[in-house]
Amino acid sequence: MASFHVRSISLPKDSHPLTLAVEEQLCQLKATEQTSSSISKNLSGLKKLYDCVEEFLSTQGGNSSDSSLEGSIMLLDVCSIIKDVLSQLKESVQELQSSIRRRSNEVSEYMISRKKITKVIRKCLSDLKNKKQNDIEVSMLKEVEATTLAVFESLLSFVCAPKENKSLISKLMLTKRVAHKSDEETSQVMKVDTAVKALSKGIEVNNVQKTLATLEMTLQDLENGVEIVFRCLIKNRVSLLNIN
Fold first, then answer.
1. From the CA atom positions of the chain, what is the Rg in Å?
2. Contact indicator for 21, 52 with CB cutoff of 8 Å
3. How far apart (Å, rounded) are the C-alpha atoms in residues 93 and 11?
4. CA-based, 20 to 30 A from 194: which of 49, 53, 108, 123?
5. What is the pLDDT along the chain (244 residues), one digit of tens a residue?
6. 0.85 cut: is pTM over it?
7. Per DSSP, what are the bridge partners of residue 3?
8. Strand locations in the chain, DSSP E?
9. 3-class SS at 94?
């Protein structure tokens, strides 16, 4: 799985202790593997990061920049999209579980929902990519924003369905790569996608319900983490407005 990287800012040795605390949290979030456990850990890390930012902002006088205020709105918008994506994906998984229990195996509805969700995710990822390319400002708060976006991008990539390769050679190469992935490297989302495609072809897949249940728990864990970050972002937005 790919890791994410963000810019690093250099702080003078006599920087304020709260500034150094923010920088320490940023360093801990700088790079990670895209697994459900590490993404959940990074969401918890964002909570610690914004706790430090809140302390920092509470000691600062003056005004917050227009860029920081705009960034706070943008982060809330992206976080809201992620909340909706996780909620819709979890609902689709629950409906598929119910369908399998009824022995109706209505996988087409899951696949349709999955495609819609994937379309939203890819649009959001594209917007995030453009945002990073256009953002040239360097400051501590902008670094916090960039790190938050990196965690969000990692999460969205984790739950996004991989693009299908139309050529036979590409499909064979993809199958070979997936076959060599360890269980830890292959996300529960990908495992479910593989199982569902097999079910749609009338092939019996062992432990499909177990795979779905595991994914449901993962999505619930991610939902809880994103909700906590969302509250932190709201609090951060209020703090920025109060010092403006």
1. 20
2. yes
3. 46
4. 123
5. 444 444 444 444 445 566 788 888 888 887 565 566 788 889 999 999 999 898 888 876 545 667 888 899 999 999 999 999 999 999 999 998 888 888 776 788 888 899 999 999 999 999 888 877 666 555 788 889 989 999 999 899 888 876 655 444 444 444 444 444 434 445 678 878 877 777 766 656 566 888 888 899 999 999 999 999 999 999 999 988 888 6
6. no
7. 33
8. none
9. helix
Q: Is 105 left (phi over 0), alpha (psi -120 to 50) or beta?
A: left
Measured CA to CA in angstroms, residue 36 lies from 42, 93, 123, 157, 220 at distances of 10, 17, 22, 11, 11
Contact 79, 152 (CB under 8 A): yes
Please give the C-alpha separations between residue 126 and each of 42, 121, 132, in angstroms, as whole numbers.
Answer: 21, 9, 10
Cα-based distances in Å from 214 to 123, 159, 185, 217: 27, 14, 15, 5
